[in-house]
């Protein structure tokens, strides 16, 4: 999905204009006369761009906590100090909440409100409803009960302290909204413009909505299996993603501003500490992740991770040379919750031949697989939802005997192939088709291991989305991860992986009564990260 460069430049110029105008505070601080005079199509690209996430929430919720617990990436100090040791930090846990409620939630609610009941805007209204479900699903899966029905409506209702709705009620409304949005699209009405995901393609928006509905349906397998089946089959019948061409992808570009270089992908900023001139990433591939992919002979292992020397812009790729000496990608990774600086003292230093020269005494720190330049560059794309994920949900649905139109094996094979090929979106050089087919053929579904295989592959698919990996781990129990509990003396989770994020302190301060009412519904009436959200039934 290559996004129109003209559109991106328009957005960047618009953003730059807003920044330049920031010195006119009196003008900007005037209350708007109305909230109905902006074309909602101009709101859509801003929301899509924001959803790739800033480093603030991606680092804290995505890597320090959920990403560290899911053991894709380790080695960055805060991720191993807090996630790895099980240490609570209110600001870290509340990051997604404090970033998205005043940003995406406010904008998407406004977008829904201004387009509801306007016949010519039926298509952009459907898109806004789909995006609203996507935004709120991430929040409720992280925190449980949250403000939803009245959230973001302060401008319209003057209600600034919304109540916390029960997650079950929120999910029921998700399904109604997605079903209604898909069925409301009307090609005869005003087209969707300024769309970074699908360039206004209504059929692809429908497939995205149905695929999201399938994801949310599968969340319910522990708490309401009948509703999970009903919603999953309905989503599949209406039509989900059909190929990698249907993936929801946010493309990013590099731009300069006042002497600095910027991009929009929060994951990449996190990996490279916000700078294109960073000479190394603080993250390293975790041995849990590397070992699993190496055992499966998964070609994605060197698409996700590469070994680099410490040098400007990391051009010196020494992955193959290190492998020739070490002989194992698992050995080129770190144990869970290991600091990168500790890695320099682990294992023996080696010498490698590189570009006709011998690189001597190469420590473990530089032997290890860092996030590859494909996924770590700040103009890397961000995959909001992939076709491979959808086929894995269908594989599990088929295993459960639900109507998907194909067998477990057929869905699983499609997911493996799509999972490799979706990496080409990042600019990874394409591998020979035989490499992909050999990988698929070597990893068939095994009777009695279906759920483990399917959900382990979802874990691989979510290697850059720790929050989704953690959500599915809580639902499925896979992969079977052992919590390393590096420092039992400071661990605040009892040596177990937490089950939710706690509410941010500012919400407890400014929306006290409603927050306390939600907390009173929790076990022990405490806002504990060991309490489970509604669908995570024990």
UniProtKB/TrEMBL annotation:
Protein origin, superkingdom: Bacteria
Keyword annotations from UniProtKB, A to Z: Lipoprotein
Name listed for the protein in its UniProt record: SusD/RagB family nutrient-binding outer membrane lipoprotein
UniProt organism field: Pseudochryseolinea flava
């Amino acid at each position: 999905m290559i996004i129109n460069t003209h559109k991106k430049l328009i957005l960047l110029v618009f953003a730059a204009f807003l920044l330049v105008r920031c010195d006119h505070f009196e003008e900007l601080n005037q209350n708007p006369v109305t909230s109905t005079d902006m074309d909602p199509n101009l709101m859509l690209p801003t929301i899509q761009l924001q959803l790739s996430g800033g480093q603030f929430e991606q680092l804290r919720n995505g890597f320090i906590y959920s990403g560290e617990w899911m053991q894709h990436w380790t080695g960055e100090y805060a991720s191993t100090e807090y996630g790895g040791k099980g240490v609570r930090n209110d600001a870290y846990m509340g990051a997604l909440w404090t970033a998205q409620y005043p940003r995406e939630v406010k904008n998407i609610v406004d977008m829904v409100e201004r387009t509801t009941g306007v016949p010519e805007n039926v298509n952009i209204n459907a898109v806004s409803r789909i995006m609203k479900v996507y935004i709120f699903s991430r929040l409720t899966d992280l925190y449980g009960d949250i403000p939803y029905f009245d959230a973001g409506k302060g401008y319209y209702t003057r209600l600034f302290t919304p109540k916390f709705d029960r997650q079950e009620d929120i999910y029921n409304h998700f399904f109604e909204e997605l079903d209604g949005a898909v069925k409301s699209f009307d090609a005869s009405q005003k087209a969707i413009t300024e769309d970074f995901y699908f360039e206004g393609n209504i059929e692809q928006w429908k497939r995205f909505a149905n695929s999201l509905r399938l994801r949310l349906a599968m969340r319910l397998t522990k708490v309401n299996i009948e509703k999970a089946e009903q919603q999953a089959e309905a989503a599949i019948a209406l039509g989900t993603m059909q190929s990698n061409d249907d993936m929801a992808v946010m493309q990013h570009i590099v731009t300069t501003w006042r002497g600095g270089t910027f991009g929009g992908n929060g994951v990449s900023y996190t990996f490279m500490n916000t700078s294109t001139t960073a000479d190394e990433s603080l993250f390293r591939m975790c041995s849990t992740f590397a070992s699993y992919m190496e055992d499966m002979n998964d070609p994605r292992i060197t698409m996700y991770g590469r070994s680099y020397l410490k040098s400007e812009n990391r051009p010196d790729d020494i992955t193959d040379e290190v492998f020739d000496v070490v002989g194992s990608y698992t050995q080129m990774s770190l144990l869970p919750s290991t600091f990168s600086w500790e890695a320099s003292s682990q294992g023996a230093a080696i010498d490698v031949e590189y570009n006709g020269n011998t690189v001597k005494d190469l420590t473990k720190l530089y032997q290890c697989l860092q996030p590859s330049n494909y996924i770590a560059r700040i103009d890397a794309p961000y995959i909001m939802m992939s076709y491979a994920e959808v086929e894995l949900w269908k594989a599990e649905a088929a295993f459960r005997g639900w109507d998907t139109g194909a067998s477990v094996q057929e869905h699983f094979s499609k997911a493996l192939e799509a999972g490799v090929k979706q990496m080409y979106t990042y600019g990874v050089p394409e591998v020979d088709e035989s490499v992909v087919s050999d990988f698929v053929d070597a990893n068939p579904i095994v009777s009695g291991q279906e759920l483990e295989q399917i959900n382990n592959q979802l874990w691989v698919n979510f290697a850059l989305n720790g929050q989704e990996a953690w959500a599915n781990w809580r639902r499925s129990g896979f992969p079977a991860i052992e919590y390393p509990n590096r420092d039992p003396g400071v661990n605040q989770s009892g040596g177990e992986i937490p089950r939710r994020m706690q509410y941010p302190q500012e919400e407890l301060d400014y929306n006290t009564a409603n927050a306390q009412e939600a907390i009173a519904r929790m076990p022990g009436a405490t806002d504990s990260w060991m309490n489970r959200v509604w669908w995570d039934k024990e």
